[in-house]
Amino acid sequence: MIDWSTKKILVAEDEDMNYFLIQETLRKYDVTLFRATTGTEAISIFKENLDINLILMDIKMPEINGYEATKIIKSIKNVPIIAQTAYTPTGKQNEIKLAGFDDFITKPIRIKELVTLIEKYL
Predict the structure, then answer these.
(1) What is the average per-residue pLDDT within 61-89?
(2) Which of 42, 51, 67, 85 is the most exposed place for a label (fewest CB within 10 A)?
(3) pLDDT recorded at residue 114
(4) Mean of the pLDDT values across residues 14-29?
(5) pLDDT at position 86
(6) SS3 80
(7) Could you tell me the residue range of the domain that residue 71 belongs to?
(8) Nearest CA among 38, 30, 40 for reference residue 4
């Protein structure tokens, strides 16, 4: 059993409604959440908190997209990064993996799927 209260998750998501869904879903697990609304902010928050255990990264982010932010973060430290995307044609799945993401979840996010995926990497 995972002790979620010791875990830190960075949610890189520029859309408020998507972030609030994730926040509400994870509230009961007592996990520490950080939020970034741009790719640049995600990189900055990660650099300041290298003990972050997992990142949920929106692919379409302002300033620096999720692909580029993931490459930069992975060059600093190998932390599990899960792509959040509304676009998952079969060809994109391979592209997501090749970009350095450990996994992906499609939007709209299904709560049970999100929790199961996070548990897999924590």
Answers:
(1) 91
(2) 51
(3) 94
(4) 94
(5) 77
(6) coil
(7) 4-121
(8) 30
Structure tokens given for 110: 């299904």
Total number of residues shown for the chain: 122
CA-CA distance, 79 to 86, in Å (whole number)? 23
Within its chain, how far is the Cα of 70 from the centroid? 10
Q: 84 - beta bridge partners?
A: 58, 105
CATH of the domain at 80: 3.40.50.2300
Question: Looking at the 3D structure of the chain, how many domains does it have?
Answer: 1
Distance in angstroms between the alpha carbons of the first and the last residue of the chain: 10
**Reported confidence tier of residue 20, pLDDT bands at 50, 70, 90:** very high
pTM of the model: 0.94
DSSP of 22-57: HHHHHHTTT-EEEEESSHHHHHHHHHH-TT--EEEE
